[in-house]
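Task card 7
Instruction: Convert sequence to structure tokens.
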Amino acid sequence: MKRLLMIVTSIVTLMSLNVYSQEVSVKKSSKAPVIDGSVSEKEYTAFFDTKKGLKIYISYDDKNIYFGLIGDTKGWVSVGLGSPKMDGSVMFLGYTKDGKPYVEEVIGKKHSHSKVDKSKVVSFSVKEEKNQTHFEFSYPIKGGNITIDKINDVIWALSQADSTQIYHKARGNFRITLE
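Output:
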């Protein structure tokens, strides 16, 4: 009986740990990416392929962190920082609606989210091309709704809809280390 209890306790403990699918090192860039919605791997110093329809490019300089996302969807794509899960993350959702680009900066609350009081996104661009959503944005390393640290938990998700109230079709997490 004690042995069974130890096994169950070990399994529960392992399940509660945050396991990252990958850790990504991000090198400092001497040149900021052009935030134009045309994500080019040459603009960024790091890359993460979710293998679930979302490619994420990352770079940073002294002032900002930069993300470029390419999602196999005509709906929204997103990344979030600050927690390995939605609860507590500051998330950035990019999408187009009626041909216009939108970005929402929201904070996760359990399995939902709400808009932050004031978005700190420096610049952004969103385009839909060939059944894909391309989303680029820059965010301050300091002075934002979350401070970017040397090591950061990142979550990601994408949806088939433009409404940010619609549930995601895929999601996951990883960790970045700024070199």
